[in-house]
Amino acid sequence: MIKCTKSDLKIDNIFSIKSSVETIFLSTEQEVICFDDHQVNFEFDKFYNKDDKKCFLIILNVEILPPDGNPGYKIMSTIHGYFTIDNNAEIDDNQIFDYHNTALAIIISYLRSHLRNITHEGIYGSYLLHSINIVDLLEQKNQEFLKEKDIHQKERKIKKNKNRG
């Protein structure tokens, strides 16, 4: 056995603030559903405590949809995760992102359990969220951020040019 050490990342609280499950039922016969073809969409953001960057909130919104015209579950859920990095931990900006990524992975794990719980009595059985490629998810989020940043810079430049003219 390997002894586990406690992380400097503290989970203050994780909970679902909103969830809904709609069963898409197309036949009178019970069908066996493969959830692998359900589309899974995530949106997430980080919010910091204005007085302490070691305290942060991650909000994860998820939308799960069966393929058009197919039976399955339509699920919407919002998860809030509150985290604190130990005050004694000496961290730099790169390390803080590692903590954020770890927190996101923790929230996704919580979401997986939550989805099983809210669908366990459904006609198609419990929904098991597939493994998520977090590296790809974070890269997509970063690309989205860079695109928005570029748009805002162009808008400011246009506004600045209009004010000159």
Describe the structure in your own words.
By secondary structure, this protein is an alpha+beta fold. It has two domains: 9-131, Bacterial Protein-export protein SecB (Roll); 133-165. Helix content is 35%, strand content 33%. The chain has a four-stranded antiparallel β-sheet with strand order 1-4-3-2, with helices on one face. A hairpin with a 2-residue loop joins β2 and β3 (52-65). 13% of the residues are buried. The mean pLDDT is 89.
Summarize the structure.
By secondary structure, this protein is an alpha+beta fold.
Radius of gyration: 20 Å
E-strand count: 4
The secondary-structure class comes to alpha+beta
CATH topology of the largest domain: Bacterial Protein-export protein SecB
Order of helices and strands: EEEEHH
Number of helices: 2
Tell me the helix content: 25-40%
**Terminal-residue CA separation:** 71 Å
Provide the residue-averaged pLDDT: 89
Q: Going across the major beta sheet, what is the strand order?
A: 1-4-3-2
Largest sheet: 4 strands, antiparallel
Count of distinct structural domains:
2
**Low-confidence spans: pLDDT under 50, at least 5 residues?**
none
CATH class of the largest domain equals: Alpha Beta
Strand content: 25-35%
**CATH second-level architecture of the largest domain:** Roll
Considering the protein shown, what is the CATH homologous superfamily of the largest domain?
SecB-like
Characterize the overall form. Answer: flat
Topology:
Layout: E1 9-24, E2 39-49, E3 52-65, E4 72-85, H1 93-119, H2 134-164
Antiparallel strand pairs: 1-4, 2-3, 3-4
